[in-house]
């Protein structure tokens, strides 16, 4: 045994990693003993070894993160590297990255984890709890949290204790007070935003039933897959939906009522919503007294004639017309509401074929708009009753066909 240890001490880090891989590979091929008592003892010893391996892994991750080596391989961050190259789930990648970044500040945690005297679970929990604390507060928090761990408090309770420490520090410094509603049963909604070290942020909060209904009503239509090629999971689609709304795709709730001029001047002919729902003439006139009214010139077949802009970005008036014509994204099967879509140049602005004229514009959700730009030959375009429809994944001719 001593000769083996002596050999290991003279080996390089790369050689040790190779040796560990060989040993673990051989261990994985072995069957577990039949004795439950033996398995329990071996599992506890192996678990301690795995925790020590996590300490070694954290040291390697820290160097990759500090040097930015992952960017040379086309990966934007260390977290993305852990997800893509090591196959970690996002939560585990964040946890390991936080540990790698905080261990240099956690001297006692680092020493004990390396000696298998502290489990990885406690070490990762403590690292997460102190990552937004200053060095002095970090040292105090480390002592408190390690004491709790040594007394047998569960890792989950240690995490909650770390949250209380952070709230007390924030309250003392006046940088981020904990929401008062949290102490009163969450009677009102609240959200906190915590910046991460790689430029992102974490969202945490609680919404009451009314605000939850507003959130669902706004984001739910955008969280559906945009098509069969949309491989994003629900979390990714929800984040994209939130970004779309925050970027201005959803300025305010609007209801478009379409009516003839005669209705506004006293005729009994009803108006109608974009989905065809009739609106009594009296109600149309009452809405017109308080709502914003935009005149719209229409020709035969309700095709817009003129809105007066031939610039790169569609005008607000042009967008209002398009939202009146299109209930959803122009791509068949995409249910993204039109008012949350982007204005798309049918033949592509970059190619110079599509001016910003109302009869050359349509609405596309953000995902399909970018997909169409990168796959221009895989979209079949048709036009029926003044409205463009796209079929994705079908080769098309150079120019769209008019109905």
From TrEMBL:
What is the organism lineage in this UniProt record?
Bacteria, Bacillati, Actinomycetota, Actinomycetes, Streptosporangiales
List, for all copies, the residue spans of the domain called HNH nuclease.
317-370
User: Matching InterPro entries, A to Z?
Assistant: DUF222, HNH_nuc
Q: Which SMART domains match?
A: HNHc (SM00507)
Protein name stated in the entry: HNH nuclease domain-containing protein
Q: Which Pfam families match?
A: DUF222
Q: Which residues cross the membrane?
A: none
